[in-house]
Amino acid sequence: MSNIEERLQRAASTLQAHRGVTPPPFSAVRRRRRHRQLFSATGTVIALIAVAGGLAFRTGTHNDNIDVSTRSSTSQTTVVRTAPSSTIAPSPAQTTPVTSTPSVRTCQPAMLSPAIRYPSGAMGHGGETVVLTNRSATTCSLGGYPDLGLLDHTRSVPLTVQHQTAAGFLYRYVPPNLVTLVPGADVSFGIEWTNQATVTATTLIITPPNDTATIQLAIPAYAAPDTHTVTVTAIAPGAEAGGYTGQGK
Amino acid sequence: MFESKIGDPRVAAGSFESFYESQYASVVRLAAALVGRWDVAEELVQDSFLELYRRWSRIANYDAPEAWLRRVVLNRATSTLRRRAVEVRASTLFRARRAATEELLVSDGEIWRAVSRLPARQAQAVALTFLEDRTVADVALILRCAESTVRTHLARGLHTLSDQLSATEGDR
User: Fold this and answer.
1) pLDDT lower than 70: segments of chain A
2) Which of A170, A204, A230, A245 is least enclosed by beta carbons within 10 angstroms?
């Protein structure tokens, strides 16, 4: 037997000894396929609408290009006066209500650095805080509820994102206000879910409010939502997502 | 060592679920050896089983449904490799290549990468022979070609692998 054949047989033995190749229930495989088809069809519809919207905009029939500051003129606005800092350590958010709408631009995903804090769980509930730090040199604003997605290795996981409208199991209710971030300041939001062990997500996709670009964040297994439905709080100043309710802490 | 495993009545006679349970791990390993990643291998194997499920009433009556399954998995693995080659070229262009995490990569990656770089039929013949301990006759049945063709694919594949791997060792 030649050297290469011996190497191939050794490599084959190693591969055969690999543990963890267990077939998932076939019903789960079929369900995932249906979800993926649904997701793909939804994506196609959204893409078509986006193309149609783009064409309408180009021809001058689309006039809804109002910026966030105009849209949120009726809501209370909060300014985070956190000093610019090179560390990621959460800083206590000193907030000051502002009576007039600030003329600052909306934070773009490229300006934000994401991090996961305080993964926790209790009584069948899981949750974590996602902190977004303004890494740019300009002041920007964010407000409302972010959109979320999950990736399971390389695939999109169907996910229903519910907005929190009252105190949840882990997080307090945060009203959807506009928050202004000076460079280095943090905003955060909480995600919570009921554990179901039906999803093995590896990446969280965050779409900031009023944006279409996304931020991807690798999530460790112990902090990954394991279900198809999550509840998200509105964006709050600081790194505490408005505070825990204390039940799951 | 190389015993024929094709047409095993224990494989052919059962329900789809028992066939799925019995074949899943071995075809995932076969796909992983060629595509180099466990997650990609599992995905393409699951898609292959879904394809099989839709045709099960017909394929269950075949003499060797496991040969049909392997043919589909090998074809999908080849498509994945071709698609990935295009993606790698594109991502290199945009400097956005995403690295796989360590636990998703197949161990002994060097040798399996060398196998996956072989022409598709040679790579398939090598993987089926060494990973699944298949006879030349079995490989010929799976790849739907003559046994002499399988021997040629094997000989050429092993020769290329030997050259590639000794060149790699020479570089170190």
Assistant:
1) 1, 18-20, 35-103, 121-122, 154, 244-249
2) A245
Are A199 and A225 within 8 A, CB to CB?
Answer: yes
Given B16, B38, B161, which is nearest A4 (Cβ)? B161
Phi, psi of A189 (to 5 degrees): -145, 155
Average pLDDT, chain A: 73
CB atoms within 10 A of CB A27: 9
**In the beta sheet, which residues pair with residue A148?**
A206
ipTM of the complex: 0.78
B130 touches chain A (CB under 8 A): yes
How many CB atoms are closer than 10 A to CB B109? 13
- Return d(Cα A231, Cα A126) in angstroms, integer: 11
Record the pTM.
Answer: 0.47
What are A's interface residues with B at a Cβ cutoff of 8 A? 2-5, 7-12, 14-16, 18, 20-24, 26, 29-30, 32-33, 153-155, 202
Question: Which is nearest to A112 in space by CA: A38, A207, A23, A190?
Answer: A207
The residue type of A229 is T
Mean pLDDT, residues B106-117:
80
Contacts 24+ apart (CB under 8 A), B81-86: B81/B34, B81/B35, B81/B116, B81/B120, B84/B35
On chain A, the residues whose CB falls within 8 A of the CB of B1 are: none
Q: Say whether residue B39 is in contact with chain A using an 8 A CB cutoff.
A: yes
Partner residue facing A11 (CB), from B20, B43, B112: B112
Measured between alpha carbons, how far is A211 from A71 in angstroms, rounded to an integer?
14
Structural tokens at position B64 = 């060797």
For residue B98, what pLDDT is reported? Answer: 46
Contacts of A1 in chain B (CB under 8 A): none
